[in-house]
Structure formats: C-alpha cells, structure tokens
C-alpha cells in the first residue's frame, strides 16, 4: 500500500520572504542553550532504479553502461528540514518506513553530507545505531571496553563504568559470552548502555529502546532523564510511537523527508499513531486527511545560522536565530 503523498505546497526555501527573525541569541540564563541547530537540510541518495523507464536517452544509457552501473534515481531522503534542540530536550522522531528518520539522525551525527543546508552541534554527538560496530567474536564485556575507549573515555573511566553498563543493558552473566551468541535485542540493549556510559551532551539513539522489556525501557528512560538533567539532549528514532510518548519531551513526525509536526511528544506521537493505524487498516483516504490536517496544524521552524558557531566546552551553539511561522 502506497503511503499518501504529503499535501501542501512546496516548503519555501530561505530565499522566500519569511518572518522577521529575532536578533542573535543572547546567553539568557533562563533559556536552555542550543545543542543542535539544523537549517533547511536536504539529503539525497542515488539508488538503483527499480523500474527503469524505457524513454531514457541513448546517451544516458551509454554513460551508465560505460561506468558499469545500471540506471539510477535520486532519492530525496530529507527535504528542507529545520529544527533546534536545546539542553533538556528529548526529541523523538517518528514516521513511516523510509520517511527519513535514520537519515536525519545520521546527518546530525555528521555522517551524511547535505546536498543543501547546515547542521551545527555544540559537541560531537554519540550515535547509537542498530548497526553500531561490535565485534561478534569478542565478549560483551570486551566490546564494552572497546566501545567506551572508542568514545574517548579513559581506561579508568571505562573500568568504572562497566558495572553500570551491564546493569543498564540487563545482559547479566551473558556479558562474558561472545556477542555472536546474543539475540539482536541483547546486542541493541548493550549498545544503548555503552553509548549512554560516556554521558554525552548529545545522544542519538536509533531504535534500541524498542527492543527491551518494560524494565529495560524504564531504566533507559531514567538514563535519558539523567542526561537531560545534566543539560544534555537526546534524539530517539523509534517505530514504536508509544516509546516516544513515554520517553520523550518533544517529537518530530517526518513524512517523505519533510517535517509534518514538531511539538509536544504526546500530541505528535498520538496524531502519528492514529494516522499510521488508519493506513494499516487500508483507510487511505482517512490517513491522507489526518496527514494533511497535521501538516497544516504544524508550524514551520525557520532557522538562520549565519554567523552561528559551536562554542567549545559544552556551552552550546551560539548565534542561532529562529522563528516559527504558521504554514
Ligand atoms: N544509502 C542509501 N542509498 C540509497 N537510498 C537510501 C540510503 N539510505 C536511505 N535511503 C533511502 O532514503 C529514504 C529515507 O531512508 P531512512 O533510512 O532515513 O528512513 P527511515 O525513516 O529511517 O526508515 P525505516 O523506518 O525503514 O528505518 C528511503 O527512501 C531510503 O530508501
């Protein structure tokens, strides 16, 4: 079943007239500092064309053949995404398969080169993905050591964190077994625990929390709360909108690479769930209406990063100007 097309006009680019943006952000004591600022981000991939058109020019086919590649198409994974995340934010990202959630996380981590737009972060984000590198023949404990050292922790801090990582992951005695014997859920939980051990200022989590039982979800929620209380911020990609409702303060709903809604986690996740449920029931027309209503209800975030820069020492990104405008 094809997902509905996102309604509404093309999102305007920065060259179109927008609202007056406030002056450069001043370090107000009561305003949490900005950890991540994304301005008009576009990410594109080239992918093999699953249904090559017969009308391709001979020249194009000749070039493809000469380069030893088949026909390809450009996938617009992110289309004009703008957002600002501050200290204390736990931002859930929801959306259908292929809506751009993981791409957004990877772009914030600096792992994707934008076709257009800018991503600024106050410090190097720690990305915990389901594909994070772990060595299957080493034990969980050895992987914890390697992972912590790879994140820049000292050997002493690594040794001190070990017990905490094992407790958070809920792996128990299996921590001394090779990781190839772990279920995918065990591996994902251990990766989350490793990433959280370094207490990063910006933690990016892709799906891991959905793999745990209720006790693990509760422990991870506490850990994310602790990071936020320490003025960090967390991004969490999850197919389980309920996990986002339970663990996040804010949520962003992506559809076909665009932001549909950016607002309080419960409201955004519930609207997304209702949309996704209707789609799953084959109620395409209802789903389309819900998507359109959500898109029109959402505000557009306009971010201006001219002159903005990350400040060393975890003091945020300074100079970010942003405004919200009704679509
Ligand atoms: N390396 C890649 N090469 C080509 N296309 C890609 C690549 N990575 C992602 N895409 C495409 O970009 C779009 C967004 O993918 P992305 O993985 O960000 O979506 P997602 O919302 O995280 O999906 P899922 O929920 O299935 O994990 C999809 O159309 C996907 O097929």
Automatic annotation (TrEMBL):
InterPro entries given in the database record: AAA+_ATPase, ABC_transporter-like_ATP-bd, ABC_transpr_TagH-like, Bact_Polysacc_Export_ATP-bd, P-loop_NTPase
Keywords: ATP-binding, Nucleotide-binding, Transport
GO annotation, cellular component aspect: membrane
Chain ranges of the ABC transporter domain: 60-281
Biased composition annotated in UniProt, kind: Pro residues: 1-29
UniProt key word Chloroplast: no
Region called Disordered, residue ranges: 1-32
GO terms assigned for molecular function: ABC-type transporter activity; ATP binding; ATP hydrolysis activity
UniProt family annotation: Belongs to the ABC transporter superfamily.
Protein name, entry field: Polysaccharide/polyol phosphate ABC transporter ATP-binding protein
